[in-house]
Amino acid sequence: MAARPGRGIDWFPYLLLTPAFALVLTIVAWPLFETFRLSLTDAAMKPTENYVGFANYVEIFQDDFGEIILRTFIWMGLSVTLKIILGTCGALLLNAALPGRAMFRILVMPPWVVPIAIGVFMWSWMYNGQFGMISGVAQRIGLLSEPFEFMAYGQSAFIATIVTDVWIGVPMVTLYLLAAMQSVPKELYEAAWTDGASRAYRFRRITLPLIAPAIFTMALLSAIWTFNSFDIIWILTEGGPRGATTTMIIDTYKTAISRFRYGEGAARAVMILVFLTAFSAVYLGLLMRLTRRGGQPQ
Amino acid sequence: MKLKTLALASCAFVALTAGAQAAEEIYFINCGGGDDEFVPSQSEHIAAWEAANPDYTVNVEFIPWGQCQEKSLTLAAAGNPPGIAYMGSRVLKQLAAGEMIRPFDLTDEEAGTYSEAVLNTVRFDGNVWGIPRAFSTKALFWNKDLFAEAGVDMPDGPQTFEDVLTAAKAISESTEAKGYGLPAASFDNTMHHFLNWMYSNGGAVLDADGKVVFDSPEVIETLQFFKDLTPYVQNGPIAYDRGKVEPLFAESQVAMMVNGGWGRFRVGDVNYGISPIPAGPSGDHSTLLITDSLVVFAGSGVEDAAADLVKTLTSVENQEVIDKTGGWTPIRLTAMAEELVAEDPTWEYFISAIPTGGPEPLMLEYVAMQDVINEAIQGVILGEIEPEEAAASAAEELRDLNGE
Q1: pTM value?
Q2: Is the ipTM of this complex over 0.85?
Q3: What kind of architecture, by CATH, is found in domain B14-136+290-348?
Q4: Fold of B139-286+363-401
Q5: Which run of H or E residues covers position B316?
Q6: Chain A positions in Cβ-Cβ contact with residue B95 (cut-off 8 Å)
Q7: Are the beta carbons of A40 and A52 closer than 8 angstroms?
Q8: What is the pLDDT of residues B211-227, one digit of tens each?
Q9: Is B91's Cβ below 8 Å from some Cβ in A?
Q10: Are B253 and A130 inside 8 Å of each other by CB?
């Protein structure tokens, strides 16, 4: 802040910034720095730790970390795509002038409101082959000839964890996009309707372009949350079978907490930060290019 | 008046605080819900010790399985360890290597009251790092009615791997049940379950020198046995840990399973028999010996008193009471084992296996080892990898973990 002519530096604005600065330093910067520092050590279940340079990072890439990174992005991509599609559909339905609309808006919330652990345990029972609803119903209608354990096979476990994550994540996307839809001026729809535009045309040419910024913002936020989603996979599969659902966050937890390799775990945590930052930067870069080209994302 | 009241209250507070500080606290983390059968007896033993050691109070906290060990370790890593903690003996090597626990001095007389096999679960590098507190051995539970329905004539139950395969095939093909309940989830008892069969086939994870021998012919044979058994087990065994197999056995959906002594109370109305873990072509009946221990953490400031308390709690007399009330396999070599067998002959299968049983492999990277072995088992069951290849690949990873 520049000094005013004829007066010294005005420290008061800096003083006002101090609490916020201290807060950020304490709860963001210091843990980040400490994680990075730890990632350069061989900290484990022992009283001392030694600096090992970037050995932990080298070690990571000698493991199957590339496979885990790819799996994480596929898991996140599928989950976020489904959440956005279903959330948009849900928002459209809840935005329609239907009787009982308020009630439906409340009814869509439970997956989001119910504590995640409880919701996930409910799904784990449904996925159970012997006693679960999904296998039971599939057998009754002839889709399956015998009980099927969804958590027993890599592909089905992978899909099952995505379905559960989507179930938990869709309500928030729905409500967020519903709010965006409600901010679209009614006059635009009335004018289009007067010109004979169909419902699909109105959605494609009015609703979608105007809520696009909200969709892109929500997609980014959802991607970050999904990337870091731990509890759903941990409760359902603990990363199994045979690592088929091990994402970066699960891998980090297993290394740092289950195996007590704190240094190596911290290196993996740093890699998550790096990948998420890179992903967000690329995503925002693309978004800005699209915005510049078309005035707004099309 | 108010000033006087305040002064009196302050004096009382200071006196109480000083009084409370006079007795040092031993913080004791015990796994479980606190409602286990042995808890009242343990509380009595602790109260007696406190009476004899008025300078100390014991604060026992029960923490559910799944979190209790992690809590102790987290506290220790943060420099605030509990005085005593209940731990699976499998983690002792890692704790000892990290200088987080201190060893016990056992006299020859004290050591002589344990079988070598039990003592080996807590003894390495010439020291005893924990005192065994709870002990389990395993046996094969089999459903007599399903065996009869399938026309399998084995009055003493399956005795060999071949018997198990024959019975499992017959039952799966001629009844509505599956032959065997196989736990194969990504969980500790998947490896434990495998080790029972592996020991009964003469295999091992580590040899006497601590070197990895997981690619031995005996281990490959055991993995092959699991592969051959897979068509006759419940659907999707990788979704099942042992706890989830128990109800399948109790509902006669599977005809056989391996379980500990407590399994006798979880069989529902099943007409069952028990036999030793069947012997493989290269071995003899054996079992996995699992102990949980009481350990004394270093750095709590009350180590000596904590060690004394552990020794008191696990004395021959007190431990016998705990074993009896808890329904555990007797840890020490006392007359109690014979009494139990006289009362309930099925104890014989769990007690007689002790001398020939094998310990949990005491590898420094225990959890990593468990993951490697579980993945080998799962790979074979899923048909993604052949037994020989699974054993070789796992052995290579284990050697890496073992620093070979």
Answers
A1: 0.82
A2: no
A3: 3-Layer(aba) Sandwich (3.40)
A4: D-Maltodextrin-Binding Protein; domain 2 (3.40.190)
A5: helix B316-326
A6: 45
A7: yes
A8: 999 999 999 999 999 99
A9: no
A10: yes
